[in-house]
Specification:
homodimer, seven-stranded parallel beta sheet, 326 residues, alpha/beta, 14 strands
Chain lengths: 326, 326
């Protein structure tokens, strides 16, 4: 089985490749080769029993997708995107990379012909939804994105379904929850604080909380994210019919509940490292974000996430901190 | 006020242009000029107190949209599309005309700059919805099209909202009901029979009914279609917020109820001209189509359609037959 990971340089892509390298197989199939693609990739790739090739490039450059598809991968993970903030700041770049790049990929697969029909796993986002919405968004709720990023993801979801219906590939789109606790340094993304207020205190550093404790959001761990991708790559997709985009399960909790969970896992001393500093811009942005989902279909299809924020923190402590709290 | 009608050669476009020519104004504003654009257009244009220019061309050819936008129209009606059957038969042509053509138009407006921000009225379709759905589809129901045409319309709806949110134009997308009774000759569209079984008997001809009488569908007259467009061009759009696509009101009725209404308007002699000839292909296609909508928001926004199928037939007799039944 040949695997292609487009956008393999991101946090989720790197975790996925690491897991595949460790397992040596995907479902019951031996992996024979893997190509990781991105604009920038850490060198060297992880050690694996199968060869891992590195392909540096930009999917939104015409011809790039054809080069990747010439290898006829059996499974394609398409994780490449510029993030919400950048797609909002640079209109043209957002459409070029998040929409045109994806369309080039889909077209390269369609034009390959000769019965080539790979599994395609696409990472979408809960950003396809925009306020106002009900407390828990049902699976049949409409997509009214409030960002260009969310618009681009919603468009790619529609294309994925049509290309699948036409038989060009066997696609599934995954609406990821906010991935939390993100490892690495704090960043300036508006959603960054959801991870910062857990990761930084656990590492002995101060973190800033820019919103009130009653803000509710939808989370899953990086480990759950890898699990979503592996399940999507191996499950039977026929039961999806022509509704190929799935809102994934997650944990809906308030910032206050996040902090309570942190206290339970790490104690008052760690929680005391959170400093409250309200930021009106972030408060406004976050007010338009989804808070909770029914995600019934995602669960019925066998996708699993954590069931409490405490569990999400324990996954972070185990996977990123070797079980050690500062 | 300068008006541009893209796709002015179709049935709805021609009716719209005829109405504007007759009125001489749109809302309270005098029309100073109108450009009608299409691949083919009937010559000459209708008589009007303002000049009507004819622009033959294909919106999906790069550069075409820029030429049209160079005129800086205040109101743009974008009605151009290839229909469902053709977009399904020719994948590339469907995406080129229904998606790329629309995107070229939106981009040409965005790049015009200098504060240019026209009103843009886009005709979408109930084909953005795909079975299974509830008996009456609510306004917040998700778009899961089952055709490439419906996919292209749903994508254009998303683009329209994002371009509007960004301030590039002031857009509204209208999900038209099936327009019935369509004037003209019977055609091979799967939906053609909804009109054929009314228009042909009223004109003294036989018509074929390929489905059973319990098939339910969603209709509005050509006169209502013109009304939708004029209302969308003149209403205040601010109250739409970031939800710029509207499911329009219509009449939900079964084929049996259509025939009953025909009997009431024209008697048994006319109804006897309907011949039942079940067609399994059409029965299958139609089974995936929407039957009924709540369309609460469309009504609240001031859009109006007929309230019974009898009224739809009487509109046809008045507008197309000069009140005469054969």
């Amino acid at each position: 089985m040949k695997i292609l990971v487009i956008g393999g340089g991101g946090m989720v892509g790197a975790k996925l490749i690491g897991r595949l390298a460790k397992d040596g197989q995907l479902g019951h199939a031996q992996i024979t080769s893997l190509v990781r693609q991105d604009i920038v990739l850490p060198a060297p790739p992880p050690t694996a029993v199968f060869p891992i090739d590195t392909h540096l490039g930009d999917l939104s450059v015409p011809g790039e997708a054809e080069k990747l598809i010439a290898l006829r991968p059996d499974i394609i993970f398409h994780l490449a995107a510029i993030v919400s903030g950048e797609a909002e700041a640079d209109f043209e770049k957002g459409y070029r990379i998040n929409l045109d790049g994806t369309r080039y990929l889909f077209e390269a697969i369609r034009k390959a012909g000769n019965g080539y029909r790979p599994r395609l796993v696409f990472t979408s986002s809960i950003a396809v939804f925009g306020a106002p919405f009900p407390e828990a968004i049902p699976d049949d709720y409409f997509t009214t994105p409030l960002t260009s990023y969310g618009t681009q993801k919603a468009i790619c979801e529609l294309l994925l379904t049509d290309y699948t219906r036409r038989g060009f590939f066997d696609g599934i789109g995954l609406r990821f929850p906010t991935i939390c606790v993100r490892p690495g340094k704090p960043n300036l993304a508006a959603s960054g604080f959801f991870s910062n207020i857990i990761r930084e205190p656990l590492a002995g550093h101060e973190a800033v909380l820019p919103v009130s404790e009653d803000v509710r959001h939808w989370h899953a761990s990086p480990r759950a994210a890898t699990g979503f991708l592996l399940h999507a790559a191996t499950m039977t997709l026929g039961e999806l019919g022509n509704r190929r985009n799935v809102t994934l399960p997650g944990v809906s909790c308030t910032v206050g509940e996040q902090i309570q969970a942190l206290r339970k896992v790490a104690g008052d001393r760690v929680v005391a490292r959170i400093r409250r500093e309200p930021n009106e811009t972030i408060i406004r942005i976050v007010s338009g974000w989804p808070r909770n989902f029914e995600a019934r279909r995602g669960r019925e299809l066998g996708f699993t996430a954590e069931t409490s924020f405490e569990e999400i923190i324990r996954v972070h402590v185990a996977d990123e901190l070797d079980g050690k709290i500062a």
